[in-house]
Specification:
Elements: E1 2-13, E2 19-20, E3 23-24, E4 30-31, H1 39-51, H2 57-60, H3 73-86, E5 91-99, H4 109-120, E6 127-132, H5 138-141, E7 145-154
Parallel strand pairs: 5-6
Antiparallel strand pairs: 1-4, 1-7, 2-3, 5-7
The chain binds the ligand Nc1ccn([C@@H]2O[C@H](COP(=O)(O)O)[C@@H](O)[C@H]2O)c(=O)n1 and 2C-methyl-D-erythritol 2,4-cyclodiphosphate.
């Protein structure tokens, strides 16, 4: 067994789509990044790559490479998963938490889980996604950005 942890943050700005776990969530702002800035998919990719000692998402997909401009992060996640599997690992489970003051994410959680499970070729029951506010505290609490933590086990 191998354990992995991933953490990512992206800034909330106007005139960007808010994409979390591959779901386009209606909101007045979106996350800024070189890719679609799907902070949840990035944290999960980093957890998987970390567990397999394959570096992190920025190693696989450099943020100065034009081919990743506006990239669908679920596709980047699927590539990361393929690298993990090529190294001989299977994925036991993924558990992630999104830190966002707004918008309310609960209505979108099941669709996010389905998207992540599909990108990772996993049963739905192996993918857990949760959301929490930080009670108005810090940069997520002020609505300046959204963060995500993820852990995974590889077998
Ligand atoms: N952006 C968010 C944040 C939280 N939730 C859900 O609300 C519950 C209570 O949030 P607390 O920060 O007070 O723990 C939380 O357990 C989530 O189910 C949400 O949907 N979207
Ligand atoms: C995903 C990549 C891909 O270009 O770009 P960003 O969307 O900026 O995301 P980040 O988590 O800052 O770093 C990883 C990048 O390599």
């Amino acid at each position: 067994m191998r354990i992995g942890h991933g953490y990512d943050v992206h800034k909330l700005v106007e005139n960007r789509k808010l994409i979390l776990g591959g779901v386009h969530i209606p909101y007045e702002k979106g996350l800024l990044g070189h890719s679609d800035a799907d902070v949840l998919a990035h944290a999960i990719a980093d957890a998987l790559l970390g567990a397999a000692t394959l570096g992190d998402i920025g190693v696989l997909f450099p943020d100065d490479d034009p081919q990743y401009a506006g990239a669908d992060s679920l596709k980047l996640l699927a590539v990361a998963v393929a690298a993990v599997r090529r190294k001989g690992f299977g994925i036991e489970n993924i558990d992630a938490t999104v830190l966002a003051q707004r918008p309310k994410l609960r209505p979108y959680i099941d669709e996010m889980r389905r998207n992540i499970a599909s990108a990772c070729n996993l049963d739905l029951d192996c993918v857990s996604i949760k959301a929490t506010t930080e009670e108005g505290l810090g940069f997520t609490g002020r609505g300046e950005g959204i963060a995500a933590h993820a852990v995974c086990l590889l077998k």
